[in-house]
Amino acid sequence: MNEELEVSAAGAGKIMLVGIGPGSVDHMTQRARAAIAEADVVIGYVTYIKLVADLIEGKEIIRKSMTEELDRAVSALEAARAGKKVALISSGDAGVYGMAGPTYEVLFQAGWTPDDPVAVEIIPGASALNSCAALVGAPLTHDFCAISLSDLLTPWPTIARRLDAVAMADFVVALYNPKSGRRTRQILEAQRLFLRHRRPDTPVAIVKSAYRRRENIVFTTLDSMAEADIGMLSTVLIGNSNTFVRHGLMVTPRGYANKYDMEEGGATRDGERAGRSLSTGLLGWLETLQAEHAAGDSIETLAERHRLPADYIRDTLAEPVEIEMAAAEEGEA
Fold first, then answer.
1. Distances from the Cα of 323 to the Cαs of 271, 293, 302, 327, in angstroms?
2. Of 211, 252, 288, 323, which one's alpha carbon is 20 to 30 angstroms from that of 233?
3. DSSP conformational letter for 271
4. pLDDT in tens, 123-173
5. Which tens digits make up the pLDDT trace of 197-237?
6. pTM flag (> 0.85)
């Protein structure tokens, strides 16, 4: 591959890694549209090319199949070395399960550096988790993560460990690539791992083809989600222990009710102070932990109670509660 790419850099062009968002032109950024407009060559998966068909008339088009990511990147570099501006498109965001990573791998293998005559620009777009969340309510208001169930390039034990860890840690989770014609068991395994830690009635939203012609949204629960119509164009949003669905909207509370009484006009709860850490925040928890241990609770008991590793509890107890930290917090504006 290197020999093919080691051509003259005279008049070298540019690679623009364009995130086109969910697929609707209305939800594409102005910079993404401008990048496609200024490109001489547009490269992408055939489905993504169709999504921007109205923007690419008269341009050189290079269509690639789903598993030809590296070929797309090689073609982009070849065209840029020939002095052309290239729009290498990804759905969603190019840096989230998109073409940014594979392209940099190809570039580095070819000896490219940021000082190379071929310029590279990443143009962000709304990823599937943003687009799908906007359609179903506000499920990502608190901590969340994304996990791909595709095992084409990632060993299944790695994926399973990640699923188990985030399920236990109570993240809201967006599952990418949940199912295909060949990969049908992965979503069942994910469901089984989540049910080890989450209630069966945990809210789940399944969004297929967000903002596209065949958009479909299904609200279900963790114990029933595998029965829904799920495919490669679907994103599965699994709520945390506080997520709820009301009036057809999936919402994950930010946590204001921990500090404020929402039924009493937002009055601060007893023991809490507006603008300060929770009484069960780090300092409060450290004091509680020390008191529980002093009262006779073992490290193992405390680890089980707080669902934290025993060695972390042990190391934490070995550190005194910092009075200076509490004083510093007291004086913060």
1. 19, 19, 23, 6
2. 252
3. T
4. 999 999 999 999 999 999 999 999 999 999 999 999 999 999 999 999 999
5. 999 999 999 999 999 989 999 999 999 999 999 998 999 99
6. yes
Query: Chain-wide mean pLDDT for the chain?
Result: 90
DSSP letters of 210-268? TTSTT-EEEEEETTTGGGS---TTEEEEE--TT-EEETTEEE---SHHHHEEGGGTTEE
* Residue 19 φ/ψ region, left for φ over 0, alpha for ψ in the -120 to 50 degree band, beta for the rest: beta
Phi, psi dihedral angles at 294 (to 5 degrees): -65, -30
- If one compares 56 and 10, the residue with the highest pLDDT of the two is 56
Higher per-residue pLDDT: 46 or 67: 46
Closest CA to 35 of 54, 52, 17: 17
Name residue 258's beta-bridge partners. none
Q: For helices 282-294 and 299-306, give the axis angle rounded to 10 degrees.
A: 140
CA angle 241, 244, 247 (to 5 degrees): 175
Dihedral sign from CA coordinates of 88, 94, 97, 102: positive
Beta bridge partners of 236: 175, 206
Residue partners of 152: CB distance under 8 A and separation at least 6: 67
The residue type at 72:
R
Question: Which residue type is seen at 308?
Answer: L
* 79, two tokens: 């065209």
- Report the SS3 class of residue 106: helix
Which two three-digit tokens encode residue 185?
């068991």
- Look at residues 67, 25, 71, 68 and name the one whose alpha carbon lies nearest to residue 50: 25
E strands, 149-214, where?
Answer: 172-176, 203-208
CB-based contact 206:136 (threshold 8 Å): no
Query: Under a CB-based contact definition with an 8 Å cutoff, are residues 123 and 31 in contact?
Result: yes
